[in-house]
Amino acid sequence: SVVVIDFGSQYSMLIARRVRESSVYCEIIPHTADWDSVASLNPKGIILSGGPASVYEANAPLAPSWVYDSGLPVLGICYGMQAMAHQLGGKVAPTSRKEYGHAVMQRSAGDDPIFKDLPQSMSVWMSHGDQISETPPGFRSLARSENSPIVVMGNGAGMLGLQFHPEVVHTPQGKTIIENFLYQICGCAPLWTPGNFVSDSIERVREQVGGGKVICALSGGVDSAVVAALIQNAIGDRLTCIFVNNGMMRKGEPQAVRDTFQRHFNANLVYADATENFLGALRGVIDPEQKRKIIGEEFIRVFDEEAARIGAVDFLAQGTLYPDVIESETTDNSVSAKIKSHHNVGGLPEHMKLSLVEPLRYLFKDEVRGVGLELGLPEEIVYRQPFPGPGLAIRIIGEVTHDKLNVLQEADAIVMDEVRRNDLYREIWQSFAVLTDTRSVGVTGDFRTYGHVIAIRAVSSEDAMTADWARIPYDVLGRISNRIANEVPDVNRVVYDITSKPPGTIEWE
Ligand code: XMP
């Protein structure tokens, strides 16, 4: 494996993903970590991330001394390179002008394994305000750009610094540079494959659970399905899945989830249709955060009740992913403003006394999909668009009622049908209908109507942090609009939401 020492760059997670995409296991660790906490990972190399600081500021984060004493190869990226230069006796100085964006780098004479199979000149992506003005003893400049004589530095013995960001797509040869570090310099083998991480995860679950019993909540999404599949593979029918239908799912979804389960799982399923409980609890509620809170609490109540009926259980399985783990370890939540509470379940009641099993704790989303395919789950689950826990409740503006749910489910089913038919499902991050609380005047035949306005929302995104409205072809939008206005009673107008995030969010509530 390789470890990434995090200096607070927005790109640290991306570095780790790139390393994993090159089939080498990688974990992100804080810059304060001691060697004992890292030794068990048996790293073959270390990457120092970028970061917002300047090395000559007081309290600037630096790499722990074990990094340089370990004898392991080290790759410093941007701020990581500057920290390395500073700590090993070189000099770092502000550039006369901050440099953002594309730059062309020219390699110096002589070969270095970091440039294996690469041309003399390459386009790279820069984002820095400081640069190396003098290499540390034993290092030389391996590449320069117009603005900077030291874009890459190395000591010929595994220590390297890059002023640019090889992890971003704007550095076209970045992948090869990272792979050269991993394979040529660290001597890593490409062992991190779906097959291996499946067997790895199954092993970990067996070790943790022993002869115990596990319950897990099924939602219809990819994460909970993969959790269930992994655990079932590890412990067989000592797993029971609980599927709570909160009534806020898409048309036909509860049945589809149960059908898929029957077809692909060999575990116990408890199905609880709690639609009426949820609708009752939501009566009269219009505030979005209040809706989320009520749905979260109601879920726990129903889940707890169903779990009690199963009898003694020891573990609760959850689909926590690696980015959630890193985020809760490295970010200071007190400083970022709360936009929406996305955590659906505040935590189970004390009396349940269950230990957590989190078999996806070390995986990125694309790796979770890889596990799903490896375990034989169908593509319709593995590539399912994300769907929020509170479901249609946060896509009905205002109070949630039976009637409005029916209207939205019908309109949404048409959106999804057309998106699938036109092969847009996989390229769009999320697509759905929203029932606005506006009514507008229309005409059907010779009669005036006063009906609902449906909004269509479709976005492209990588991670839901930012998103752009999807450029769905006009023809498809036209068909969606026509069908909704004709087929869904009480709807006489359809609009398309062309807001990106920011400033909008993906959901309307
Ligand atoms: P926003 O609307 O904040 O959404 O741009 C970002 C992503 O999060 C999903 N989302 C939620 N997921 N519970 C969830 O499980 C929630 O309360 C919730 N709110 C938003 C949204 O669908 C998008 O993928």
UniProtKB/TrEMBL annotation:
<dbReference type="Pfam" id="PF00958">
    <property type="entry name" value="GMP_synt_C"/>
</dbReference>
<dbReference type="Pfam" id="PF00117">
    <property type="entry name" value="GATase"/>
</dbReference>
<feature type="binding site">
    <location>
        <begin position="219"/>
        <end position="225"/>
    </location>
    <ligand>
        <name>ATP</name>
    </ligand>
</feature>
<dbReference type="InterPro" id="IPR025777">
    <property type="entry name" value="GMPS_ATP_PPase_dom"/>
</dbReference>
<protein>
    <recommendedName>
        <fullName>GMP synthase [glutamine-hydrolyzing]</fullName>
        <ecNumber>6.3.5.2</ecNumber>
    </recommendedName>
</protein>
<keyword id="KW-0067">ATP-binding</keyword>
<keyword id="KW-0547">Nucleotide-binding</keyword>
<dbReference type="InterPro" id="IPR022955">
    <property type="entry name" value="GMP_synthase"/>
</dbReference>
<dbReference type="InterPro" id="IPR014729">
    <property type="entry name" value="Rossmann-like_a/b/a_fold"/>
</dbReference>
<dbReference type="InterPro" id="IPR004739">
    <property type="entry name" value="GMP_synth_GATase"/>
</dbReference>
<dbReference type="InterPro" id="IPR017926">
    <property type="entry name" value="GATASE"/>
</dbReference>
<dbReference type="GO" id="GO:0005829">
    <property type="term" value="C:cytosol"/>
</dbReference>
<keyword id="KW-0436">Ligase</keyword>
<dbReference type="GO" id="GO:0005524">
    <property type="term" value="F:ATP binding"/>
</dbReference>
<dbReference type="InterPro" id="IPR001674">
    <property type="entry name" value="GMP_synth_C"/>
</dbReference>
<dbReference type="Pfam" id="PF02540">
    <property type="entry name" value="NAD_synthase"/>
</dbReference>
<keyword id="KW-0658">Purine biosynthesis</keyword>
<dbReference type="InterPro" id="IPR022310">
    <property type="entry name" value="NAD/GMP_synthase"/>
</dbReference>
<dbReference type="InterPro" id="IPR029062">
    <property type="entry name" value="Class_I_gatase-like"/>
</dbReference>
<dbReference type="GO" id="GO:0003921">
    <property type="term" value="F:GMP synthase activity"/>
</dbReference>
<comment type="function">
    <text>Catalyzes the conversion of xanthine monophosphate (XMP) to GMP in the presence of glutamine and ATP through an adenyl-XMP intermediate.</text>
</comment>
<feature type="domain" description="GMPS ATP-PPase">
    <location>
        <begin position="192"/>
        <end position="384"/>
    </location>
</feature>
<comment type="pathway">
    <text>Purine metabolism; GMP biosynthesis; GMP from XMP (L-Gln route): step 1/1.</text>
</comment>
<keyword id="KW-0332">GMP biosynthesis</keyword>
<keyword id="KW-0315">Glutamine amidotransferase</keyword>
